[in-house]
Amino acid sequence: MAKSRLQLKASTAKRFREFSKKNNSNQSETLDLILDFFEHNNLSPFETLVPSKVSLEQLIKKRIDAVIAILKNIEKTQTKPSLLMLELLMEGRSVPKLEVAKKEKISASNEKSPAQLKLEISRLQEVLKTNKRDLLYLIQHVEIKSNAFGPDYLKLNIPRSEFEHYKIAIKQKN
Question: Domain of life of the organism in this record (predicted)?
Fold first, then answer.
């Protein structure tokens, strides 16, 4: 390795040698490390490291924008769907009561013959049997999972496609 001479003031050379000794390295390694540090961090020895008010303001604005984005994401993915599910559940509770009342009025006004009633009863019994069979199948594939950090929960051990099939079938029955 070829050596070269640098022209430095004596006081600067003395400070540099002391700095190299403190860091337990030779002078070439110390100078390489210092230059690498300045280049890697895009620093200039002629500029101050104190951040300006403008750069601090920009940094704060970026962080606030990031927090806003996170909050919007939480609202979009967690809060709104939860509220929507609750609203659907509430609607689901009130709608059947109205439908039952309407069905009773309709059935009272439309009196059916005994043959029609027998057909309807047999059809409803068949629907009941299939519903019982499906429910029994689903109950057999439910597993209770214990959770160390909260309440226990139920896990349904059937393929997703089969579950989607059941959902579609139930919607069609209604």
Answer: Bacteria
